[in-house]
Design a protein that fits this description.
There is one protein chain. The chain has about 280 residues and is α/β, with parallel strands linked by helices. The protein has a single domain, classed as Rossmann fold (3-Layer(aba) Sandwich), CATH 3.40.50. The protein contains eleven helices and eight strands. Helix 3 packs antiparallel against helix 5 and helix 7 packs across helix 8. The longest helix is centred in the last third of the chain and has 18 residues. Bound molecules: S-adenosylmethionine (SAM). S-adenosylmethionine (SAM) binds next to helix 1, helix 5 and strand 2.
């Protein structure tokens, strides 16, 4: 099996659309009444969810005229949110076919299918012309991609001059081995973390100028503490959440990730890059 197929197999659920439909019934909603806010706990698959997306977006100024690319869009939650926030066109690309299929259905449910287009494909070789996009985001994707200079060179190619590229990835902060499984990988073979310094170097090699990294460790730990206390109060997870995506292994993967963050091995990190 190719490396990218192994990554995509890791994320494939097999019956995700049905699982989300079942969960929205428990929320007391239907596909006609569901909103992007209701979907955020399941379709924003990165630490801090919607709050983290907002924090990233607040650092750039997308407008209604900007066509934005979401690299490794997953179910397209961030893509739909960007489009609803800025009233603009957003395109997402992801190698997990099931995420794209489910994401397209979710776009239709919330009536964003005219403005948000999701496509199956690799971020390392995107089916887009040079200088197509006015901005790009990438949330929690680089952990599965070894060739970061190649990835950033490809993103640079499809961006217009002046475009911002907002990165929010889990990065490596020490040389200690991680505890697996984690949400992005069952084992080490598909987890290719890099330090913020490595990201900054790879972005520079691709031609970007970048802000200093912003390590979001404290935000992440606070987010998980709040999530834990909400679950304690409610006596379990909410109908829609990351457990809907990851199934039975969800608690183990999330707990391992928290341990890895607490131990100082990893943290989510923001970098805002620009194609001058
Ligand atoms: C943790 S999920 C994050 C999804 C989404 N960005 C979000 O925040 O909700 C990682 C995503 O990266 C995608 N991915 C990993 N390697 C990729 C590649 N080479 N090209 C495109 N997508 C990739 C996976 O399929 C998965 O959907």
């Amino acid at each position: 099996m190719s490396y990218e197929n192994s990554v995509s197999e890791h994320y494939t659920h097999g019956g995700l659309l049905g699982a989300i439909r079942d969960s929205i019934v428990k929320l007391g909603k239907t596909i006609d009444t569901i909103t992007i806010d209701d979907l955020a706990p399941v379709d924003e698959f990165h630490i801090g969810g919607r709050r983290a997306t907002d924090h990233l977006l607040d650092q750039v100024n997308f407008s209604a005229d900007d066509h934005v690319l979401d690299v490794g869009c997953g179910l397209g939650g961030a893509a739909r949110y960007i489009s609803s926030k800025f009233n603009n066109q957003v395109t997402g690309i992801d190698i997990t076919q099931e995420y794209i299929d489910v994401g397209i259905a979710l776009c239709a449910w919330v009536e964003l299918d005219k403005r948000v287009s999701l496509q199956h494909g690799s971020a390392l070789s995107m089916p887009f012309e040079d200088e197509t996009f006015d901005g790009a985001v990438m949330l929690h994707v680089g952990m599965n991609i070894d060739d970061k200079p190649g990835l950033f060179t490809e993103v640079f190619r499809v961006l217009r001059p002046g475009a911002y590229f907002c990165v929010y990835d889990i990065m490596q902060l020490s040389n200690e081995d991680l505890i697996y499984p984690v949400p992005w990988a069952t084992q080490m073979s598909t987890s290719i973390l890099a330090t913020p310094h490595h990201y900054l170097q790879a972005l520079k090699t691709a031609g970007f100028s970048s802000s200093k990294e912003n390590i979001r460790r404290d935000f992440a730990l606070e987010f998980f503490r709040n999530m834990h206390s909400r679950m304690q109060t409610a006596g379990g997870p909410p109908p829609l959440g990351l457990h809907t995506l990851m199934g039975e292994s969800s608690a183990l993967k999330v707990n391992n990730m928290i341990h890895n963050i607490e131990a100082g091995r990893i943290a989510p990190v923001e970098i805002i890059a620009r194609k001058e």
